[in-house]
């Protein structure tokens, strides 16, 4: 009977092991927060497209110049936001150099996760990748002194460059 099907079973097995292009991936499930702009669904790390949140170790200053762990606050805010409407759905666009899927994500209620982070001041519009998609959200966050905009902060891309002693990718 195996002779009748020839190489078909091996072909089907090999299809199952090929990776689907990132552009066509749709990820859906309960999201775990890794940091302010990275989540995980079903074991896949997802970098939120076009936004840049403070690093977990990053310290900012509030309006009274008091230091606070803005990176941790951004991650906690994202976790709280995602917990209120599950599951999270992500449409992949690419894979970054760290192997993370780069995606636009929404909560079950249809709210854009990427946009929410910027509008509430927990991430900046990373124009290099967003092409200004979150410009209005960032203007709203700045004028409301929301999140990191309540004081002063170093751009996350500059903070990473300073820590690694590399050229900024801003």
From TrEMBL:
SUPFAM superfamilies associated with the record: Staphylococcal nuclease
Tree of life domain: Bacteria
PANTHER family: BLR1266 PROTEIN, EBNA2 BINDING PROTEIN P100
Full protein name: Thermonuclease family protein
């Amino acid at each position: 009977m195996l002779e009748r099907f020839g190489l078909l079973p091996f072909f089907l097995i090999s299809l199952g092991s090929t990776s689907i292009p990132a552009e066509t991936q749709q990820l859906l499930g309960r999201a775990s927060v890794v940091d302010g702009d990275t989540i995980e669904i079903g074991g896949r790390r997802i970098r939120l497209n076009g936004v840049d949140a403070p690093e977990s170790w990053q310290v900012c200053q509030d309006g009274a110049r008091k230091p606070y762990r803005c990176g941790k606050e951004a991650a906690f805010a994202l976790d709280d936001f995602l917990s209120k409407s599950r599951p999270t759905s992500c449409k992949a666009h690419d894979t970054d150099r760290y192997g993370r899927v780069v995606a636009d994500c929404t909560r079950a209620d249809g709210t854009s996760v990427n946009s929410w982070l910027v509008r509430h001041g927990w991430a900046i519009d990373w124009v290099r990748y967003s092409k200004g998609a979150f410009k209005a959200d960032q203007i709203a966050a700045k004028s409301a002194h929301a999140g990191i905009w309540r004081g002063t902060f170093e751009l996350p891309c500059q903070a990473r460059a300073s820590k690694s002693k590399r050229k900024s990718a801003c």
